[in-house]
Amino acid sequence: MKMSNRILENVLKEGKRLLREAGIISWALDADIIMAYVLKISREQLITKNKYTLSIDEFELFHKIIEKRRNFMPIAYIINHVEFMGLDFYIDENVLIPRPDTETLVEAAIKSIMENNVETVLDICTGSGAIGISIAHHCPQIKVTLADISRKALDIARINSEKNSICIDCIESDMFENIEKKFDLIVSNPPYISKNEMAELPENVANYEPHMALYGGEDGLLFYRVLAKSAKNYLTPAGKIFVEIGSTQKNDVIGIFGKENFIPYSSLKDLAGLDRTLIFGKNIK
Fold it and tell me: Which distant-in-sequence residues (6+ apart) come within 8 Å of 44 by Cβ?
């Protein structure tokens, strides 16, 4: 192999071409991220290393990862990293990739904690722990508990709590099964994809993200029914529950919680202007 074929600017150009031809929309950014990951440098440093000659191992690793991305493997799973609420999170295929839209829920929860006498928070269906850990980081005075049915997900949540220097409790639990205490605030981004929607998921989601964390039953509303039915038993009298929803589920979820004597406090939209977060409180008579 000619040394010139391993010069960074040439290798990067070829990687971008391969991703573009595979139909990857973010081909230029992704190739930069992959190269920075391979060389263990920042993306900004790529410019100053334009004439750097990759070792054979670096060259082969770059093309191996490019091939994964050509098959629509999400970048977050490739580099085992995603940023959420300004924090760094370890991610692999045992958990969903935290989306910027979910920051709507987290920001609302933080605001509520700051304005009210909140001491305890439960993040149920926690996955990577992104929601609960972000809340704990921004509200260090409170006690946060993470719960998930997946032991592998909780292992990742523990990694992320240590990574972000957060002291947190983790409970392996099928919804509320192993939850014993009451909380001032419950937050949840449960599985909410319906059976029909599961069949239409894009490749990068369908082939890589854990279906257990996506599928919300036939109509996508299964876990909201469980949350509505059980949450009132695990909330303090003035407690609230914050849930993320699918963009078309607002009225259905409000109806589900209404049947269990909850009052809708707020409906919040995500960055795209779609309904994304609902806040409920117990109807105390």
Answer: none
Q: Decide if pLDDT at 135 tops 80.
A: yes
| Cα–Cα dist 198/224, whole Å | 18
Predicted TM-score (pTM) of this structure: 0.91
Confidence class for position 178, pLDDT limits 50, 70, 90: very high
Whether the pLDDT of residue 285 is over 70: the answer is: no
Residue found by looking up tokens 């994964």 in the block = 68
- CA 270 to CA 104: how far, in whole Å? 6
Both tokens assigned to 266: 């707020």
What's the one-letter identity of residue 235?
L
Using CB atoms within 10 A of its CB, is residue 199 exposed (0-12), middle (13-18) or buried (19+)? Answer: exposed
Torsion over CA of 13, 18, 23 and 28, rounded to 10 degrees? Answer: -20
Task: State the distance between the two ends of the chain, measured CA to CA, in whole angstroms.
Answer: 78
Q: Which helix (H) or strand (E) holds 252?
A: helix 250-259
Quick one: average pLDDT of 91-114? 96
Look at strands 235-244 and 275-282 and give their pairing. antiparallel
Q: Kindly report, residue by residue over 139-156, the tens digit of the pLDDT.
A: 999 999 999 999 999 999
Distances in Å between the Cα of 217 and the Cα atoms of 51, 142, 230, 235 are 53, 33, 18, 25
Distance of alpha carbon 229 from alpha carbon 260, whole angstroms: 6
